[in-house]
Design brief:
Layout lengths: L1 E9 L8 E8 L3 E8 L27 E4 L5 E7 L2 E7 L2 E6 L6 E2 L5 E4 L2 E4 L13 E4 L2 E4 L7 E8 L3 E4 L18 E3 L21 E6 L2 E7 L5 E14 L8 E14 L4 E6 L4 H12 L13 E2 L7 H13 L6 E4 L20 H9 L5 E5 L3 E3 L5 H9 L12 E4 L2 E5 L5 H9 L13 E5 L26 H4 L3 H16 L8 E3 L11 E3 L7 H16 L5 E2 L11 H11 L6 E2 L15 H16 L1 H14 L4 E2 L1 H4 L13 E3 L3 E3 L9 E4 L8 E2 L4 E2 L3 E4 L7 E4 L2 E6 L14 E6 L6 E7 L6 H4 L4 E8 L2 E6 L11 E8 L8 E5 L5 E2 L1 E5 L4 E5 L3 E2 L4 E5 L1
Parallel strand pairs: 21-22, 21-31, 22-23, 23-27, 27-28, 28-29, 29-30, 41-45
Antiparallel strand pairs: 1-2, 2-3, 3-20, 4-5, 5-6, 6-7, 7-13, 8-13, 9-10, 11-12, 13-19, 14-16, 15-18, 16-17, 17-20, 18-19, 24-26, 25-26, 32-33, 33-34, 34-39, 35-38, 36-37, 36-39, 40-41, 42-43, 43-44, 44-51, 45-49, 45-50, 46-47, 46-51, 48-49
Length: 848
């Protein structure tokens, strides 16, 4: 809901015509700034479908004003000439817009074509500018029918020197200054084996930037889907502190970060997220673009992928190999070779002649799933039903002359479905029906690859910018949205296939703001090198802060052959990240987890099993991501926002609020220095309690994972072959006490696969509390109704200082029962054993 909005006209330095400025305050401490031509020659592109709802405007005109915000300590100072906005909180400027005067807005112009070239009425006087209307890239030319249309605006963040976000780049967590001319680029591209420590855009783009300092976090969401460049400059700025007498005024030096956004086309549509806390920013961004879809539980298990598993016998052999080596897994994946000549929604008749048997006889029996690849390019072949239907209905992207755009990709000559067209998305979703997708079953899910879109032999391996989409919009306007729309259509297809009952699973390589609503993403074609393991941590943290919690990196590296130590360390890291998939290129040696010797197999098995035992905690984290937009994997500073030492940490991270994880990302490491934040914090392992910087000797067997004092983590006591076979396995609760000898935690339960949690409220949310030697389980959401036979079988309490004399359990409507326990005085751990406490009912444990 909009609280207030102001409109006025202004002229920018380069503008021939006035611009319409619209500033509004949105409920939830968000401001929106829109700038467009007052009377454009033709409409300019405004990004649709990303915002989950459009706020209703309540008009309030002004030319120059001070706007008092909902929080009366906050004011917005707006001037039209010169154009500037300042946001002031308690007398201090937090951010300002156009303070460097970099507002830029190129107006659309009429044009006519003459003799094969482009001529304009507006530019006849300045023939040198005609190069801006038509650019040459080798044999390709990019014609801008209405001339250059770029836009730009600067923001100054006062008092901030730590900024984050704007994925996707293979770069550090902290954004770097770009004064060397090397700017951050947001332009989705197929980059095979991308360079580490590069600001070049790769597969996805989320134009969300976060700034943080002790006491405040702010965000800028630049809603534009064309090619976008971001310049960042942090400097020291002088601030004058006002006084009653000018001669006694004082000065102080504060950091200031200037951020300049530049996009090739569209309008300026920016949301300023005012926090003030990190979790407020995540919630504000989710209010605009939606929260992470709640994934089906199987998709949080381990995924085994390769380009390509050769045939049905190969799939059956790999599946059996996991059982033979006692390694759980949930999903096996098929890459492009499973199709009939790279025709998606088909099967290679020689190698996958009986896909229904493969799914029902091999995978379904063990409650496992299959994921197949579905790329957006469609092989030009009149006998291929998908192609002929799309061709007949006009569903392909067009070239500037109105013919179907054609480019080279895996199948050879291909056309590209225009997913920006709602009718195309509807039709595409229908292709997942069992009657249409022969050989598919309810356990088949989807992988959208190559959807930047990738066009071999194209400029930068992508579609020409003057290709034409639905609504006559050029590709330059919608480029970063293309993969977003394919994933949207794919998710809808899987939901529709089940009659609206089942949650989908869709992995996409290309993504944009809001992609979290439709599934998972990954970091693309990484290499089997240590630096790619190391950079994957800040890459995933950055994607997570941009709203997409379900993210991961290919374990082992997609390109090349990992040495055994690297592969083991990557499994240990991946097991503690949201999306967990091993994947490899067709030119690599086979690398199923049991192919590297008995000792390495044992360590990898343990890492994967630890993942499976941790699934109750992970699932609860995903529920919180879905409900309140908390990232599953988060930078340390998000949990410790007042501690300056945490602001640049990227070699360790928090998994939820309870686990501190330090992946080992370098070879032959025998010890690591783990930073343990918080002077009042306690971090616990089963061995000890740690505070501040701690030196931890390592073995090859594991990596440092510590539980934060004050938390409760639910675990499974044993592991099955797949997640669905673990539904009734009992729970263990691991309780780590803080300095006040208290702890809290949650457990979320539903059926793990359907939308009944949403539509019929069939879920359980339990809250565990330890305080003053009383440990209780209570319902945390009375709306949820879900029945389970599952019980808590064991509870470990870390940090109990004295051996109890007795422990009793009180179950509602029942008698008190004595509880068996053991106590280890050396490590202050109390273990409560042989419990049978149903997780769906209230109970209390008294420790005396």
């Amino acid at each position: 809901m909009i609280k207030s909005v102001i409109y006025f006209l202004l002229k920018s330095n380069n503008a021939k015509e006035p611009l319409l400025v619209e500033i509004s305050e949105i409920e939830g401490n968000i401001f929106r700034l829109k700038i467009n031509e007052k009377v454009p020659f033709k409409p300019r592109y405004e990004v649709p479908d990303v915002l989950i709802k459009e706020p209703v405007l309540l008009q309030k005109d002004a030319d120059k004003l001070v706007l008092t915000c909902a929080d009366e300590d906050q004011q917005l100072h707006v001037t039209a000439n010169p154009f500037q906005i300042q946001f002031v909180c308690k007398g201090e400027i937090v951010w300002s817009t156009n303070s460097n005067g970099l507002l830029y807005f190129e107006h659309l112009q009429p044009a006519f074509f003459q003799g094969g070239g482009i001529r304009t009425v507006a530019l006849q006087e300045n023939q040198d500018d005609l190069g801006l209307w038509e650019e040459k890239f080798g044999k390709f030319s990019d014609i801008k029918a209405n001339g250059p249309s770029s836009i730009g605006l600067d923001f100054s963040l006062h008092g901030f020197e730590h900024v984050y976000g704007i994925p996707q780049h293979a770069e550090t967590l902290l954004l770097k200054n770009t004064s060397d001319g090397d700017v951050y680029r947001l332009y989705n591209l197929d980059v095979f084996g991308y360079k580490v420590h590069s600001k070049m855009g790769i597969y996805g783009a989320v134009p969300l930037l976060l700034a943080h300092k002790p006491g405040r976090t702010a965000g800028i969401f630049w809603l534009n889907s064309s090619e976008t460049l971001v310049e960042i400059a942090t400097k020291a700025a002088m601030e004058v502190l006002s006084s009653r007498t000018p001669e006694t005024s004082k000065q102080r030096v504060l950091p200031q970060t200037d951020v300049r956004w530049m996009s090739e086309s569209g309008i300026i549509d920016t949301f300023i997220l005012m926090g003030p806390q990190p979790f407020d920013i995540f919630k504000q961004y989710a209010e605009l673009t939606g929260t992470q879809a709640l994934p089906p539980l199987f998709s949080l298990g381990y995924h085994q992928c390769r380009w390509n598993y050769e045939d049905e016998d190969d799939v059956e052999g790999v599946d059996a190999g996991f059982d033979m080596h006692d390694i759980p897994y949930d999903v096996i994946w098929l890459d492009i070779e499973h199709t009939d000549g790279k025709r998606y929604f088909t099967w290679n008749k020689e190698k996958f002649g009986n896909p229904e048997r493969m799914q029902k006889q091999i995978l379904m029996k063990k409650k496992r799933k299959l994921v197949v690849i579905l790329d957006p390019h469609i092989k030009v072949d009149p006998l291929y039903t998908i192609y002929s239907q799309a061709k007949e209905r006009g569903y392909f992207v067009k070239d500037r002359k109105g013919k179907d755009f054609e480019g080279i990709c895996w199948p050879g000559l291909s056309s590209y479905l225009d997913f920006t067209n709602p009718e195309v998305r509807e039709w595409y979703a229908d292709q997942f029906a069992f009657s249409a997708y022969k050989g598919s079953s309810e356990i088949l899910f989807a992988w959208n690859d190559m959807n930047e879109p990738s066009v071999f032999r194209g400029v930068e391996l992508t579609m020409q910018k003057d290709a034409v989409h639905y609504g006559k919009w050029e590709h330059r306007e919608v480029h970063n949205l293309y993969g977003f729309y394919q994933q949207m259509a794919t998710a809808e297809g899987l939901i529709r296939r089940s009659g609206g009952l089942e949650r989908p699973f869709v992995l996409t390589r290309s993504f944009f703001a809001g992609s979290q609503k439709y599934g998972a993403v990954w970091t693309g074609d990484n290499k089997a090198k240590w630096q790619y393991l190391k950079i994957s941590v800040p890459m995933l943290l950055t994607i997570s802060m941009a709203g997409i919690s379900f993210c991961g990196a290919d374990v082992g590296g997609f390109i090349g052959n990992p040495e055994p130590e690297l592969l083991v360390r990557w499994y240990q890291a991946g097991a503690l990240q949201p999306f967990f998939r091993g994947h490899a290129n067709m030119n690599t040696k086979r690398r199923e987890p049991w192919l590297f010797g008995e000792e390495n197999t044992r360590i990898i098995r343990n890492a994967i099993k630890e993942r499976y035992s941790l699934l109750p905690y992970l699932y609860a984290l995903f529920y919180r991501a879905h409900k309140v937009a908390e990232p599953v994997m988060r930078p340390v500073w998000v949990e410790f926002p007042k501690e300056l030492e945490t602001f640049g940490i990227e070699d360790e991270y928090m998994l939820g609020n309870a686990l501190l994880v330090y992946p080992v990302t370098e070879p032959k490491v025998t010890a690591v220095n783990v930073f343990l934040p918080g002077p009042q914090e306690v971090m616990k392992t089963i061995i000890n309690s740690f505070i501040s910087l701690f030196y931890i000797p390592l073995c090859f067997y594991g990596i440092p994972v510590m539980q934060r004092g004050g938390t409760v983590i639910p675990l499974k006591t044993s592991v099955g072959k797949s997640t669905e076979l673990m539904v009734d396995v009992p729970y263990e609760l691991r309780v780590a006490l803080d300095t006040k000898e208290s702890a809290v935690g949650e457990l979320y339960l539903d059926d793990g696969h359907s939308f009944q949690y949403l539509h019929e409220k069939k879920f359980l949310l339990r809250k565990f509390t330890f305080h003053k030697n009383v440990f209780s389980s209570r319902c945390a959401d009375e709306n949820g109704q879900f029945h389970t036979k599952c019980v808590v079988e064991q509870i470990l309490i870390l940090g109990i200082k004295k051996q109890p004399s007795s422990v009793t359990a009180s179950i509602h409507d029942g008698k008190d029962q004595a509880v068996a326990f053991t106590y280890d005085a050396k490590i202050s751990v109390l273990t409560l054993q042989k419990l049978s406490l149903n997780v769906g009912i209230d109970w209390v444990l008294h420790i005396k």
